[in-house]
Amino acid sequence: MHGTLTDLFSHQAWADAAHWRALAAHPGALDDLAIQERLRHIALVQTAFLDILRGQAPRLPRPGEEPSMPALLPAVRSYHEGAAAFVASVASRLDELVQIPWFQDPACRIPVREALLQVALHSHGHRAQNATRLRELGGKAPATDYIVWLWKGRPAPEWP
Question: Which of 23, 30, 101, 137 is deepest in the core (most CB within 10 A)?
Answer without folding.
Answer: 23
